[in-house]
Amino acid sequence: MSVLPTIDHWHDGAAWAGTSERTAPVRNPATGDEVAAVRLASAADTTTVVRRARDAADDWRTASLSKRTKVLFGFRQLLDERADEVAEVITRQHGKVRSDAFGEVQRGLEVVEFACGVGSLLKGSHSEQASTGVDVTSILQPVGVAVGITPFNFPAMVPLWMVPVALACGNAFVLKPSERDPGASLLLAEMLAEAGLPAGVFSVLQGDREVVDALLTDPLVDAVSFVGSTPVARHVYETATAAGKRVQALGGAKNHQVVLPDADLDAAAGAAVSAAYGSAGERCMAISVVVAVDPVGDALVERIAKLAAEVVVADGAEPGTDMGPLITAEHRDRVASMVDAGEQAGAAVVVDGRGLSVAGRPGGFFLGPSLLDHVTPDMTVYRDEIFGPVLCVVRVPSYDAAVALVRDNPYGNGVSLFTRDGGAARRFTFEVEAGMVGINVPIPVPMAYYSFGGWNDSLFGDTHVHGPEGVHFYTRSKVVTSRWDEPATAGADLGFPTNT
Questions:
Q1: How far apart are CA 255 and CA 307, in angstroms?
Q2: Measured by CB atoms within 10 angstroms of the end CB, which terminus of the chain is less buried, N or C?
Q3: Nearest to 371 by CA among 302, 316, 320
Q4: What pTM did the predictor assign?
Q5: Are residues 296 and 364 in the same domain?
Q6: Rounded mean pLDDT, 228-247
């Protein structure tokens, strides 16, 4: 029998086994087979890694902006050259189709390119002669040791939202990836080391909740970034802020696509199918609710159903596949149970993905696209985040009712509107409550030079990831007031200083 590979941690510039003997299986979701074992770090391992990161941060913050830029440019080159390799690992451990996995790497590359502009990103400000003979300067300095706790659904892109910006700002970074698909994290570590990043500045701790809770409370950790479900985001935020850390914790989503009567229904249907079933719906920006404004419901559902039935579900590594499996058997069963609940509550199952079998992959975690019509806001299939290939259609009588529906949902990650009316689009952009808005764009994920993040229960903390807000999160502002000429008066003056 062949021995399965073991996925290690990354510590002090090299792969590291740690001291814990605990492991977890890593499976190929398309087959159900175990393809590797991942080590699960202990709290003691966490302390070891964070202490080394603390020492490395003290040195890295002194590195010139030119040196940081050179490392990031080298990393960008290596990541571009090895994009196919990273995508292959993602497909094997996550299950998404190769084109989707490759696209994930490309979006991560854009953040690396943004971070390569560190010389401009970290410019402070200066006011000469703020008072007579007095100058005031603001500077941006690193926070110290930053931690990223990232989800299974984007094992490369979400770490790349955080790591390049944090390193550009002069911080050390400790990544805790999902234990379900951890392989990409070590590839990133290898490339950063090859690009010249000093040992200890970037670390990877594989693990489960034991590691997470140790990181959230470690006194040497200064900042925590998280992407995942809302309940865990709330736990991360409350625990880490109570320990005195700055936190950005991105939670769940229930993204709506509003379709007005004047919209191009073919375009709206195609966008809904792409955004709902891409990556098997395991995206925080997936469209999970189509809001059909009367009288377009019947025509729109008919178009969506036709396209959904044509989606090819198979092993993501197979050419011609549109949608791969879900991440685990347990998650597949949970998503299927949500369709059950919707049907029992009175929703019409127009397209039923339950019971799908894929030839040659009897052990895979597959579920076909499902489409539920006449869903109402009181149903669990509407209220709960499903995170699977299930699209709900809610019918409303007017534009105002559509906006109210989006506003009343507790999540506020992303929303889109399909219309030909520029006035309606502008009004929607102004009125809707969500962090990211798309107009005739189903998944409004911003470019790297803007920041990604939602509102309400989709975000805990004040700062979004990457872009300008990412720079703000990974730096602290320091204001220096200086005077070099001779004081205007000699001796003590106990009056409150004023600018003259």
A1: 20
A2: N
A3: 302
A4: 0.95
A5: yes
A6: 96
